[in-house]
Design a protein that fits this description.
Blueprint (H helix, E strand, L loop, with lengths): L16 H4 L13 H13 L15 H13 L1 H24 L7 H8 L19 H6 L14 H19 L2 H10 L1 H11 L4 H6 L5 H18 L19 E7 L4 H8 L24 E7 L26 E3 L6 H7 L4 H7 L12 E3 L6
Antiparallel strand pairs: 1-2, 3-4
Helix pairs in contact: 3-4, 3-11, 4-7, 5-11, 7-8, 8-9, 8-11, 13-14
Length: 372
Amino acid sequence: MKHSNLSVLFIPIAALALISGCATSSAIRPLPKPEVIASDIRDADAQVEPEPHSEVPMEINEDVQKWIDYFAIKDRVRFESFLLRGEYYRETIEAILTEHQVPRDMYYLAMIESGFMTQATSHASAVGVWQFIRATGRRYGMRQSAYLDERRDVIQATHAAARYLRDLHQEFGSWYLAMAAYNAGEGRIRRAIRIGRSRDFWVLVQKRVLPRETKNYVPKFLAAWIIGRKPAKFGFELPEQIESRYPNVEKATVPGSVHLNEIARVLGLEPNSLAPLNPHLIHGITPPEKTTYDIWVPQGQAAQLLAPEMPLARVTNPAALLPVRYRVRTGDTLEAIAKRHRISLASLKRLNGLDSDRIYRGQSLKVRPSSS
């Protein structure tokens, strides 16, 4: 099914500061023992009234401890950047997860998937903060075209991820298996359960019936969650006050073929201020194939766009914003590429001198004449 989370996310960065000597190990506090971590988390949780749907089992075993050590020591610099970047989105993501009765702690699953980068793309062409592949994105209502990829919309993608995780939990009856299926796909987890004759994630790990990436996926999540709950215990010094968080937004219905900067002008906002709220608009314009399209604007400002004295100028030649070339990704077909770039299959083959529909990953294709 899914994505393959950004495996590159957890490959050690070259010349890690902690290994190369750019930062001394004396700056890192000794890692707390697993039993101390578990006790601290239990004490913190005991002070909060739990919601029936919000409990992810907390387990610290050898596999989890390995990833705690990795994130807190070897990949420390990058993991800290994930913690900081995530704070910008945390309130928004947790609120959406809670709305769908999915544990708020699944926030850390997005950290494992993408490091909270909206433009993240994996080797399997999974996209966005929640790393959806095309098929699963479409299944959960996220549209994709030459001008649009709603998998990059943090709000839409989080709603989709919450619904998907909830569906997986309903099928497998376990948040660990739901996460495993999010990573590997439902079919592979059903097969693992059948072969391993168990619905216990750790038993399936022991029986070696899960893909290697999936075997590590839940321990990575648990390690990120454990560190994220008490980062200071692991020597991460995060600011007490986060300077900025994802703003409150609302939907505004606007015409197709309108540039975000034109909308910002009408609203009296700075140029490029709407782009971070709408990273799914690939070229910064609303889809020309749509009569109208809903975008995100700061809360309280959508009504201004409805005023008759505030007309929006359309982009007269949206096709000029389309890329000249396209690099083939896993799962692409020539027909799908043609449709996505609003060109006939015959024209696409003629542009590239192709006499068959066969293409390969990494191939560079012309999708419109360079002179247009």
